[in-house]
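User: What would this chain look like folded?
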Amino acid sequence: MKRVIFVAALTLAVLAPIVWLRLQVAPLAVIVRGGEGPPTLVLLHGYGSNAEDWLQFEGKILMPEDGRVIYPQGPLRSPGGSRGWWWLDLPGHVPPGARLPDYSAANPGGLKVASRLVGNLLDDIEGPIVLGGFSQGAMLSAEIAFQTDQALAGLILLGGTTVNEAAWLERVPGRRRLPIFIGHGRWDGVLPFAAMDRFQQRLRAAGLDVTWFPFEGGHDLPDELIGAVNAFLAGLDLAPPGRP
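Assistant: Here's the prediction, encoded as C-alpha cells.
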C-alpha cells in the first residue's frame, strides 16, 4: 500500500508541472457568435462556470450589426466540466471577522498567466474590442485593463472584485479614455459589494469615465443589469478605424 501511495504521489509530482506548463502555452478554446466583426465583445466567465453559460444571454446582449461575441473557455477544467481562469481560494482570503473574501492585496501568479492567455487571444482580434466578464472573469478583465496596454474600446465588470488593487490604481491614469461599466448586486453573497463600490469611486476620482450600476440582487446577472449593459454598449464608438 505504501508503495502504491508513493508511486501515485511521484506520478502527480511529475505530471502536475507538465499540465500547468501546457495550460500556460495552449491557446484558449472559444465560442463565437454573431457576425464577422469588428466590433467584437469578449466575455469571460466566472470560476466554476464555462463559456457555454453565456449562451443563455444570446439575443439579450446586443451588439451592433456585424458585431460578434467571443466567449473564451478558462484553461482550468474540473471533471464535471466547469472551468476557471486560475485556482480561486475564496475561503482562504476571508479576513478574520469578515464573511466575504478580500483579494484587494492578493497577487496570485495564476492571474498573470490567465492575463497573458487572454491577451494572446485579443492580439489576434481586429478592433475595436470591448472586454468584460462576470465574477472571476471580471477580475481578469480588470487585470488586463489596468496592467497591460491592450487596446480596448470598453470595459465591463460584472459581480467582480479588486485583485492587487494598489497596482491597478497605479495604472489608472493611462485609462482615462476608456469607458467602463461596473455592475454589482447590493446583496452579493460571494464577492463584496463594498469592494467594487470603493473601486468605482476611486476610478471616478481619478477622472475615468465610469458607469456604475448597483442593483438590488446577489451574485447574478438579472435582466435589469443586462439592459444597463446594452445601454452602455449602445453609447460606445465601435466603428472600426477608418470607417464612419
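The chain has six helices and nine strands. If you want, I can go into more detail on any region.
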